[in-house]
Please model this.
Amino acid sequence: MARSPFTPEEHRRIHDAVASIKRDTAVDVDVIVTHVSDRYSMYPIVWAALGAFALTAVTVLLRPRLSAHSVILIQMSLLFVLLMLFDVMPVRLWIVPKRVKRAHAHQLAHREFAAHMAASPRRNRILLFVSIAERYVEIVADHETHSLVPDGTWDKIVGDFLTAVKGGRIAEGVFDAIEACRVVINTHQRGNAEKSARDGD
Model:
């Protein structure tokens, strides 16, 4: 079982901040922190097969008198060893292209957001998503909530969030992002209240 990236105190602090936003506004904030967004199972197999083939070819070039039985034995042994090596998660993540890791993390973030929206479709929603292994951060919001602020505001929150996560300060990054979302929501609510007051005069 994967260990939580948060201490009990950090978890409680984040939970209280999320609950406060839900209680005081019409917006739900969800926090998803996953250790990895995908198993990338095919990559160790492909890389091990290519590596075993290449190393066997080099061996045959250096030792052309090897029997077919010996060549097969060498190739199978190399395949097994390389498969074990590439199956170690840090190595596996290293051989997966960055764009693939980002794509998988992005897809998981939006699947999680869709699942939470389906659970309570009548409330506005913001999802704070972190995938630790991919060092990926995304904030997903419904269209109405996303349009509350000028262009660049969400990007600034995400940038600060990502900086904290890359620095290993995951809990701090999550809490700061929650508080930044609170500011966005409160600013919008104050603006609506002032507009309503002016319209009522």
